[in-house]
Design brief:
The structure holds three protein chains of three kinds. By secondary structure, chain A is mainly alpha-helical. Helices cover 70% and strands 0% of the residues of chain A. Chain B is built from 13 helices and 14 strands. Chain B is α/β, with parallel strands linked by helices. The N terminus of chain B is likely disordered. Classes of the chains: A mainly alpha, B alpha/beta, C mainly alpha. Chain A: One of its GO terms (molecular function) is branched-chain amino acid transmembrane transporter activity.
Chain lengths: 541, 385, 337
């Protein structure tokens, strides 16, 4: 529904149409969410109140942002439309219908996830089917510390202190520092040379020591703080939210490196299936480590930070107190998403961004040009993971009541992947659009099909409410068949391949842009057996 | 082209809706998984509630209200459930909700509904935490884990006289919560629990069955849903083990016996829904269900019906209290929490201060040779008043 | 616990794992065949396989009242499932993958996911319209009996087997025999016929094979037909073994089977079989680790119960792939530029 505008229209100045469209859709959106006004409008009100119509209005309204981005208009108009839509109209409509906030935050969360996965899959060409694991790490970071779960953990360690005391903490810290230092030393000493067997073994030993040191330190910290369990019955103070925003990024990135280290030497679909497996491992651990996550029963209620002046502002604007957290999170998501987009744009144009693309297109050639394969891939993994980590934390704060492992199933990873591909792999606006389209479909448009037809006389077996997967599947297949390059394909790649041509050329041709990967498919393969595509290359041997 | 299609659909939707707006519309929502792997259970809940709504449609029409049911899909996913809950909150004509299937969805959804005081009556969530939070809008008609678990454990001890029990759960909030309470109750009475383990496996139970063969428990408790438990029981019996298998209300389905096939023996489960033969109303319900949905009625359908009936009777009471005018959500919330509801398949219902069922008769059903019989009844009451 | 009880227990666990492994192996073959020619993870294969299981269910249901020989019923069910699943797989390839032959690799992956979602709901509708969701197999008389039960002519043999822990049912034997037969046929087809040679040529190099006069589209269709037919067979076997299927039950075994294919070296037929058997056994062994832990007195093992079955398999996969990045039987070549 957010199809790109046609060629001809983009040629002219579209300032006026954009402003008009934005004004109209904003007005309709606000009206359609306002029950009292609808009631006074009679037939039109009934029409606008129809769930399906509402969902379409919301989609059209959000499409303004797309048009503002795509159409050729005065720059001020773009900024005006963007700012007005996101900062003014959406919160306004959200006041009457809280679900808009929910949907908008969810779109933001998935946009960040898709941008993160885009780095891993779209830029670096590493197919990751367990991406939701990093989301889970971020979510449980705050889900544990921001809820009463931390008190449960501390209480447990207080009762099972063992021989732990301040000495253990010192030993743990020492071990951590020494092993970390030796790991750095080994890395530095081995720089520029292929790692020898001895160096890899000592590196492995040191990393084992590091894990042991961290475990000891963590345990000692927990035991020594056990007395504080009483005061933490509802979790850490909400002020820690800000610290944990940073920590969740860090934790997810570390997780990315830890998962990446053993698996990133694998290629192609071996990597895909192994990341899928590790994603499941994280979910099953979350389900089984009852002490830390409360397992399938879900964490206790989770806090969210509150900014007093923002709450006051929201109160002044007529929001009800229960909407304050979502109001806050909405703006927080906007800020984070803008930062993530900035980071992405910077990365895209940076040395590391080019290195990723080089690796994706041809690993051997990239290596020959002096790109350190493993490190570059690890950075991609860690960067992608960190986006998921921070959004996981926002998700935990948004869910507020509890988080359970059900939220981190394999289907979520697959969903994010479909956003990236549907939007246009490697293209920043593309994957954001993909995330918005898929999230809108899942949370707004497809459910509204069911709501709108609830009282029609349709046999329940074929009722659209029951067939969301079918409709979503059809949309995926049709979209891919007709726009295999994605809704908003990567402009740079398209341009590189079509120099001198119309730079607004329909991006259908950018199929070739990605043919770097495809080239593998044409290479010799030993019968039905493993293909060289999956071969480990030099440098990491 | 796409846009044209959408416009056409919009028009069609408008036309369909334009005709039906004479009386004031009161909507009851259901929130349950309607698509995906758990859609069968979620649809049963929705269908059951639909029957309750159909039953009271005429009564509401007399008062000048058009009673409707809208099914919302939570896809068994907490985030989707929360989003649907907020949509329900925004639709002012929805006065109450029947839902959900999964506790992991019920907890955040009820929290999202609470500020707008949309009452929720759960047909399936047994996890203690669902009502322990003391939300004003969350109620349930099923027994809590810590009421149902001990009931099952007591039956294992006193009726089956088991000394060694093997406990399995399905690693969901429902199954694990229930199994934990059973374990706790058994251990308190010094019954040996030879194993307590979870499994997400739905097809192959050979490793668990090998362990059961090795450890020879007197009874197996399975905290889970019938379609998983049925497969397990079938494989257990195929190996020649006749050990009794006990479960909770997740077993309450005719499908259990169908799936277990020739092995549908020595199965017991605790439930608040009366056996179909015991109540004339249950027979009528089963007939109506079959007629309306061309499917035999199952346990979750009965629970959905009961929860739907509580909701509808609550709304009706609120209307009457309000002088036959449209009640507010808070009035409905109060009417449900404070009201007394009768004519349900599970007897009559009153809620305590946190929304747990005050006292319920719990039936222990026995499956022998594929037939369901009443084994015994237990009275359970909510831990608080 | 002494050895005389422990040994049969372990044999029992391993044998159970092997039987399960045969089911995984046949499903894995469907993945690996398609991967071999298109380098595509055919996510829709799990639904192709469920389709086979549902066809098998329908055949057994319709034929239930007939006095026909049980094995004949089984053969009819297998053939029907092979035809429907094979045809469906070819159809999927024509509609959803072929138009994307030259698109980036991940695009057909997404259509595969889409097709998988579509098929799940379609199968649900088809059975739902008849008021069914969970489908329970009604097997012919005797299939659920014990293999070599007391009273049968081989009772003594059966007793010996049971004493060492091998406790099988007739349907388990059927499963293994059918699985081995399909393997043999597949092996013949791929390695000893013109068709097989052509398929292998296409898998190796589509362009060159085309220059040699091989119609690569036809060969790809043939591969999907064979893979789908194997999916149908595995569906019926799955339904027979576990008794119940529904429209969504393909997802889990599908993931494991694909893991098995990767473990064995994706694209390799013996690899898929080896991977399937290995995963079946590993899963079962991890499922009983807690008992082994309590017997050997290693307390830490006691926490590893059946809920770790699945991830145990994944961890083994990680370990194996770290040391052998192309899977157990995958060939490693040096990458050419």
């Amino acid at each position: 529904m957010t199809a790109a505008p046609t060629q001809a229209r983009r040629r002219q100045d579209m300032t006026l149409p954009l402003l008009l469209l934005a004004a109209v859709t904003s007005l309709v959106l606000i009206i359609s969410q306002h029950g009292d006004v609808l009631a006074r409008l009679g037939g039109l009100g009934t029409f606008l109140g129809n769930p399906l119509v509402r969902a379409v209005v919301l989609s059209l309204f959000l499409a303004n942002l797309l048009f503002a981005y795509r159409w050729r208009t005065q720059p001020w108009a773009k900024v005006l439309v963007g700012a007005a839509c996101l900062l003014l109209v959406l919160p306004w409509a959200g006041r009457d219908n809280t679900s808009l906030f929910d949907t908008a935050i969810q779109i933001g969360i998935f946009a960040a996830l898709a941008l993160g996965l885009n780095i891993v899959v779209g830029l670096a060409g590493l197919l990751d089917l367990g991406y939701v694991a990093f989301f889970a790490v971020g979510a449980y970071m705050w889900g544990i510390f921001g809820s009463g779960q931390i008190a449960t953990i501390l209480k447990y360690y207080g009762e099972h202190a063992g021989a732990t005391n301040a000495g253990t903490l010192v030993i743990g810290l020492l071990l951590t520092v020494i092993t970390a230092a030796s790991m750095l030393f080994i890395r530095r000493a081995g720089k520029g040379r292929a790692p020898s067997r001895a160096s890899s073994i000592s590196f492995g030993l040191a990393s084992f020591g590091l894990v042991a040191g961290l475990t000891l330190t963590g345990r000692a910290l927990l035991v020594l703080n056990a007395a504080k369990a009483q005061g933490l019955a509802t979790g850490l103070d909400a002020g820690f939210f800000w610290l944990f925003l940073a920590l969740s990024i860090f934790a997810a990135a570390v997780m990315g490196v830890l998962i990446g280290l053993p698996v990133l030497r694998l290629k192609g679909d071996y990597l895909a299936i192994i990341t899928l497996g590790l994603g499941e491992v994280i979910r099953v651990l979350a389900n089984n480590l009852t002490l830390y996550t409360n397992g399938s029963q879900g964490t206790p209620p989770i806090k969210s930070a509150s900014v007093p002046w923002l709450d006051a502002l929201a109160g002044r604007l007529g929001f009800s107190p229960d909407q304050y957290p979502l109001f806050f999170l909405y703006f927080l998501v906007l800020i984070i998403i803008s930062l993530i987009i900035l980071v992405n744009i910077r990365l895209d144009r940076s040395r590391i961004g080019r290195a990723w693309i080089a690796i994706r297109d041809d690993e051997v050639a990239a290596q020959a040009m002096g790109i350190p394969l493993m490190r570059t891939k690890l950075i991609a993994f860690a960067t992608g993971a960190s986006f998921a980590g921070i959004m996981g934390m926002i998700f935990a704060a948004k869910q507020a009541a509890t988080i359970t492992p059900e939220s981190f199933v394999l289907n979520q990873s697959i969903g994010v992947l479909s956003m990236v591909i549907l939007g246009g792999m490697g293209s920043i606006p593309g994957v954001i659009l993909g995330a918005a389209v898929v999230t809108l479909l899942n949370l707004s448009i497809l459910p509204s099909l069911g709501e709108a037809t609830a009282n029609m006389n349709i046999p329940q077996q074929v009722n659209p409410a029951q067939l969301q997967r079918l409709v979503f599947g059809v949309i995926l297949v049709v979209a891919m068949l007709f726009r295999p390059e994605g809704l908003l394909p990567n402009q740079r790649q398209a341009m590189q391949l079509h120099e001198g041509e119309d730079d607004n050329a329909p991006a259908v041709d950018s199929i070739e842009a990605d043919s770097g990967q495809d080239a593998h498919a044409e290479m010799a393969s030993p019968g039905l057996a493993g293909r060289e595509d999956d071969e480990r290359t030099g440098g990491v041997k | 082209m796409k846009k044209f299609g959408l416009t056409a659909m919009m028009l069609a939707g408008a036309l369909a809706l334009g005709n039906a707006s004479a009386a004031t519309v009161i909507k009851i929502a259901t929130l349950s998984p309607l698509s995906g792997g758990q859609s069968d259970l979620g649809t049963q809940i929705k269908n059951g509630a639909q029957l309750a709504v159909n039953e009271y449609k005429a009564q509401f029409a007399k008062l000048g209200f058009d009673l409707q049911l809208v099914g919302y899909d939570d896809q068994a996913d907490p985030a989707t459930g929360t989003a649907s809950a907020r949509k329900i909150a925004a639709d002012k004509s929805i006065l109450a909700v029947v839902g959900t299937l999964n506790s992991g969805v019920a907890i955040p959804s009820s929290a999202a509904l609470q500020p707008s005081h949309v009452a929720m009556v759960s047909p399936a969530n047994t996890a203690n935490q669902v009502t322990d939070r003391g939300l004003s809008n969350m109620n349930r008609i099923v027994a809590r884990d810590d009421a149902q678990g001990p009931a099952g454990a007591n039956f294992i001890m006193s009726n089956l006289k088991a000394k060694k029990v093997y406990i399995i759960n399905d690693k969901t909030a429902y199954g694990e919560g229930l199994a934990k309470e059973v374990e706790k109750a058994l251990k308190a009475k010094n019954v040996q629990v030879v194993a307590y383990e979870g499994t997400e496996e739905k097809n192959d139970f050979s490793s668990i069955i090998a362990k059961i063969q090795l450890q020879k428990p007197d009874a197996v408790y399975f905290g889970g849903i019938y379609n998983q438990a049925g497969v397990f029981i079938k494989q257990l019996r195929d190996k020649g083990l006749d050990t009794p298998v006990i479960g909770g209300d997740g077993f309450d389905s005719a499908e259990l016996a169908t799936i277990a096939g020739a092995g549908a023996n020595n199965i017991y489960f605790t439930t608040v829904a009366a056996p179909i033969d015991a109540l004339p109303a249950a027979k009528i319900f089963a007939g109506n269900y079959q007629k309306a949905f061309k499917k035999p009625a199952q346990g979750f359908g009965a629970f959905g019906y009961d929860a739907g009936k509580v909701v509808v009777q609550g709304v009706l009471a609120a209307i009457k209290n309000n002088g036959n005018k449209l009640p507010t959500r808070v009035q409905v919330e109060n009417a449900i929490r404070k009201g007394a509801f009768s004519g349900l398949l599970s007897g009559s219902v009153t809620f305590n201060s946190v929304g747990d069922r005050k006292a319920a008769k719990m039936y222990v059903m026995n499956v022998q040779g594929g037939k369901y019989k009443l084994a015994t009844t237990v009275n359970v009451s909510a831990p608080r008043n | 616990m002494d050895l005389s009880t422990l040994a049969p227990f372990l044999v029992n666990v391993v044998v159970g794992g092997l039987v399960l492994g045969f089911v995984y192996a046949i499903i894995a073959l469907g993945y690996t065949m398609v991967y071999g020619v298109l380098q595509l993870i055919n996510f829709a294969h799990s639904e192709v396989f469920v389709t086979g299981a549902i066809v098998g269910y329908e055949v057994f249901r319709v034929l239930e009242p007939s006095p026909m020989n049980g094995y004949l019923k089984l053969i009819i069910a297998l053939i029907a499932a092979m035809i429907v699943s094979g045809g469906l797989n070819v159809l999927i390839e024509r509609l959803a993958y072929r138009p994307l032959r030259n698109a980036p690799k991940l695009v057909p992956l997404i259509t595969a996911i889409g097709v998988s979602l579509i098929l799940q709901d379609l199968l649900k509708i088809i059975e739902g319209l008849q008021g069914r969701f969970d489908l329970t197999y009604t097997l012919p008389q005797g299939f659920s009996n014990k293999f070599c039960a007391t009273g049968s002519s081989c009772a003594a043999f059966g007793d010996t087997l049971r004493r060492i822990g091998v406790d099988l049912q007739v349907k388990d034997i059927i499963l293994v025999v059918v699985a081995l037969l399909s393997l043999a046929v597949l092996n013949y087809l791929v390695n000893h016929t013109r068709l097989g040679r052509a398929i292998r040529a296409v898998a190796q190099d589509r362009v060159t094979a085309g220059l040699m006069g091989i119609d690569s589209n036809r060969m790809i269709s043939a591969t999907f037909l064979i893979g789908g037919a194997l999916g149908g067979v595995s569906g019926v076997l799955f339904g027979m073994k576990f008794g119940t299927v529904n429209a969504y039950s393909g997802f889990d075994p599908g993931i494991i089977a694909f893991t098995a294919a990767v473990l064995g070296g994706i694209g390799s037929i013996p690899g898929a079989v080896l991977g399937g058997l290995l995963l079946g056994v590993i899963q079962n062994l991890i499922g009983v680790t807690n008992v082994l832990g309590s017997i050997t007195g290693i307390a830490n093992l006691a926490a590893i119960d059946a809920s770790y079955q699945r991830i145990g398999a994944f961890i083994v996969l990680v370990l194996i792939l770290i040391f052998k990045p192309t899977g157990l039987l995958g060939k490693s070549n040096t990458e050419k530029v």
